[in-house]
Amino acid sequence: MRAFFSAGKNMRTIEWNSSSNELRMIDQRILPSSLEFVICNNDLQVADAIRLMVIRGAPAIGVAAAYGMALAANQYGGDNVGELKNKLSGSADLLISSRPTAVNIKWAVHKVLDSIYDINDSCKTIKNICLQTAHDLAENDIVTNKKIAEFGEALIQDGDTIIHHCNTGSLATVDWGTALGVIRLAHERGKKIQVLVDETRPRLQGARLTAWELAQYGIPFHIITDSAAGYFLSKGEVQRVFFGADRVARNGDVANKIGTYMLALAAHENNVPAYSVFPLSTVDMDTLNGQLIPIEEREEQEVLDIQVGGRVVVPQGARARNPAFDVTPNQYITGLITEKGIIYPPYELNLRKAAASPGEGF
Ligand code: MRU
């Protein structure tokens, strides 16, 4: 993995370079202080980039994993189809284990494996199909996000103040975003809205990434501490809450960035509608409810590394717990905004209908 600096604009979060056959991703660890890219040449580097959160956000890491499969195929120098397929199944396991909660990685990797399942003629064909499948997933991500935005935007009223959690924008996807894409479309359509941006401890995806994106789109916003959300909701200052999803269980329970559960509880208590926004690739029909979703626990240091005035604030030797996600039970969620439309309770029935429907609507 190597990194370089560029000040280019209008780039995608993740992009394939077809002249060098390399994968380029924006390094989200250091935004917004500088805009740099990381280049990956093989599946190990992609798995590392996902684990270290160079790239993050459920749809974006799904696409990254698909390209990781294409890179793994390209790296294979032999001409034995069976051997290549074995290698790819090892790469699939590696990529799926890089971050356990977002189901999009598993979904994308299986899309690639399915695309070559019946192909046995040559390694070259398999390599081409892996890459084409990754390209298709990347393009489809943007189309899907725009459909999601069309449905979600209709919920936003002129003058709304919206609380948004984590980062669900262009950076969390290939481009455009999910929950933030909804907000962006409402703004582009002339609705006068403002956003209260949860800073989203400990990695500060809200304060760093969402704020960076909102500033570029010209959408008015204030950053708030995560614990201030309840205050603003109780004061009647918030009309809607939007957040993304990393895995949605069959019953509509939503695993999303840590803090979503408390936010949804506070919204429910104050009769403010709270929506989870995601592509249907985030739904895991094999998981019956949210308690069965694996929750990633990350390094203690992410929580402990706080400095105020250049000084470390926690006592030496202090320990931390750092679950990266929590589960919001379905009863606290007003609706699930997807590319097929807005899904309301009963979630299990309606998620099944949406997943099964071939076109828009369900
Ligand atoms: O740990 P992260 O930054 O990958 O977590 C991301 C989130 O929780 C997002 O809200 C979610 O992936 C939806 S992104 C469109």
Give a written overview of the molecule:
The chain has 362 residues and is an alpha/beta fold. Helices cover 39% and strands 17% of the residues. A 7-stranded mixed sheet has the order 7-6-5-8-11-16-17, with helices on both faces. A hairpin with a 4-residue loop joins strand 9 and strand 10 (254-257). The longest helix has 31 residues, at 123-153. The radius of gyration is 20 Å and the shape is globular. Mean pLDDT is 96; it is low at 1-8. 5-S-methyl-1-O-phosphono-5-thio-D-ribulose binds next to helix 2 and strand 10.
Helical fraction equals 25-40%
Assign the structural class, choosing from mainly alpha, mainly beta, alpha/beta, alpha+beta, or little secondary structure.
Answer: alpha/beta
Strand content: 15-25%
Terminal CA distance reads: 43 Å
| Strand line-up in the sheet with most strands | 7-6-5-8-11-16-17
List the helices and strands and how they pair.
Layout: E1 2-5, E2 14-17, E3 22-26, E4 36-40, H1 43-51, H2 58-75, H3 81-96, H4 104-116, H5 123-153, E5 161-164, H6 179-188, E6 194-198, H7 205-217, E7 221-224, H8 229-234, E8 240-243, E9 247-249, E10 254-257, H9 260-269, E11 274-277, E12 283-284, H10 301-304, E13 307-308, E14 311-312, E15 325-328, E16 335-338, E17 341-343, H11 347-356
Parallel strand pairs: 5-6, 5-8, 6-7, 8-11, 9-12, 11-16
Antiparallel strand pairs: 1-4, 2-3, 3-4, 9-10, 10-15, 13-14, 16-17
Helix pairs in contact: 1-2, 1-3, 2-3, 2-4, 2-5, 3-4, 4-5, 5-6
This protein binds 5-S-methyl-1-O-phosphono-5-thio-D-ribulose.
